[in-house]
Amino acid sequence: MGAINGIASASMTMSAMQLETACNTALLKKSMESMEQQALGLIEDLAQTVPAPALQEGHIDTYI
Predict the structure, then answer these.
(1) 13 phi/psi in degrees, rounded to 5
(2) How confident is the model at residue 2 (pLDDT cuts 50, 70, 90)?
(3) Torsion on CA atoms 39, 42, 43, 45, rounded to nearest 10
(4) Cα(60)–Cα(53) distance, integer angstroms
(5) CB burial class (10 A; 0-12, 13-18, 19+) of residue 45?
(6) Interacting residues of 60 by C-beta distance below 8 A, sequence separation 6+
(7) pLDDT in tens, 11-63
């Protein structure tokens, strides 16, 4: 009986760990999606508030 209880206990522990991992992964994904939406909103806000530079002599200055 001791071996069976040990196997059952290990199985339950493994199932609990898998459930915890699945929940943590879901929370992380939701958090990342939320941060992505915030970043996209910020980029959109910045794009609307910062005026585009005027073209001078038909050239666009680029810096590397």
Answers:
(1) -65, -40
(2) confident
(3) 160
(4) 9
(5) exposed
(6) 53
(7) 899 999 999 999 999 999 999 999 999 999 999 998 888 776 665 566 666 77
- pLDDT for res 6: 85
Tokens standing for residue 10: 């290990």
Pure H helices in 1-64: 2-49
Residue among 14, 10, 32, 33 nearest 22 (CA): 14
Alpha carbons 8 and 14: distance in angstroms, whole number: 10
Give the phi and the psi of residue 44 in degrees, each rounded to 5. Answer: -65, -45
What is the three-class DSSP state of 14? helix
Amino acid in position 30: K
